Amino acid sequence: MNQKKQVVLVTGATGYIGSQVVYALREMFGDGLHVKALVRERSGIGVLSDPAVEIVRGDILNPVSLLEPFDAVDAVFHCAGLVAYTKQCRNLLYETNVTGTSNVVDVCLQKGVGRLVMTSSVAATGVKEGAEQADEETAFSDWQHGIAYMESKRLAEIEGERGIAEGLDVVMVNPGVVLGRGKGRSAVLNSSTRAVTSIYQGKIFLYPSGGLSLVDILDVARAHIEVWKKGQTGERYIIVSENCSYKELFSMIREIPGSSDRTVFPASSALYGIAGAGGELFSLLSGRRPYITLESMRLARRYLYYSNRKSVERLAMSYRPVKEILQSIVT
């Protein structure tokens, strides 16, 4: 007698991370797993060209629309979310990341979903002083900075913790800054990847004083599956390859053959505010979401470094080196 095929559902399936999770599930399990991709009614299927992937329509902000897609689902990968560092998006961030997650948790509980794998972020964990690396146990302490994205991701985790208290099996994936082309056309959806190209071309030549943690999109997708298979209920898993200062990042990009020979400079304190305000003004005039804002410039002064030790030891994760990630983006 044939064993029943497991069914998994991916929210945010046309987005940068969600699409790559779909690809990774299909690559790893093939026809041994039934993959559902949740797509909003008004959205195209974008990068989801695999006919074996079942497209189901629903919106995480409309819980009624989730009832049918979540029927008979064994696991949900909740990848839907919004990344933005601008005050104009504050309400939308809370609506998408917090209310949307709350709705997903509620429907998972209602439908008896076996496990919920949440795409969180290192932004939801705490930050250590100086250049010390934070880990999964570092308590979130950024409420006083008023950065809505960070707050919304931590509050989304709290919704996941509520789900655990009500009987749902929840695990969390906490990537650093995600880069890379991935599969299909996913790179066009990611502002960090576009920023690397701009640095390579010499369009961005001022580097901030802080640092950040970086990881390849394909490693992030694979980590979701490893967390699904091996993760412990209620635990976070930080997914990063390396930590580096912005100065080191710019240097690595400029060492790639063909890069601009324009000199790079450290940004002065005054330029942080000017650059951030300029990005906000550009957004207002163009209607496009900027990747340089007042909030992002405030964060760029800090060393947002995180340890990947837990994911390496407990999930057997290995990571693509940052130099390779950067080279793959621009060549």
| Range of helix content | 25-40%
Name of the CATH class of one domain: Alpha Beta
**DSSP summary, beta strand count:** 12
Number of helices: 11
Residue-averaged pLDDT, rounded? 91
List the helices and strands and how they pair.
Blueprint: E1 6-11, H1 16-29, E2 33-39, E3 54-57, H2 63-66, E4 75-78, H3 90-111, E5 115-119, H4 148-165, E6 170-175, E7 177-179, H5 191-200, E8 206-207, E9 211-216, H6 217-230, E10 236-239, E11 242-245, H7 246-254, E12 265-266, H8 269-286, H9 294-300, H10 309-315, H11 322-330
Characteristics of this structure?
alpha/beta, Rossmann fold, 331 residues, single chain, three-stranded mixed beta sheet
How would you characterize this protein structure?
- The chain has 331 residues and is α/β, with parallel strands linked by helices.
- It has a domain at 6-176 and 215-241 and 306-319: Rossmann fold (3-Layer(aba) Sandwich).
- The chain has 11 helices and 12 strands.
- Helix 1 packs across helix 6 (217-230) and helix 3 packs parallel to helix 4.
- It is globular and about 60 Å long.
Summarize the structure.
The chain is built from eleven helices and twelve strands. The chain has 331 residues and is α/β, with parallel strands linked by helices. The radius of gyration is 20 Å and the shape is globular.
